[in-house]
Write a structure and sequence with these properties.
3 helices, mainly alpha
Length: 95
Amino acid sequence: MPFFKPSHRRQYVSDKVFYAWFELIYTFVDVSAALLFVIGSVMFFSEEWKTAGTWCFLFGSFLFALKPTMRIFREMRYFKENDLDDLAKRFENGS
């Protein structure tokens, strides 16, 4: 089973709470990163605020980098919980 399989959203009915929390945190990170970039952009209009604006860009960049990292961890969790037995069987059968 590949990572990032679209059916993961529908396959784990018993895991709805985890998925809901993940989506909520993911959206919060996304909005926070975007806001930091907007605030940093506004700060660049003033020489006095350029350093603070640069920090906003840096923190926003870290948040944007966190998004795909979060998705990878979620997919690895699903992958681990659902398919290790199947992978072992396929390995034993040589397929």
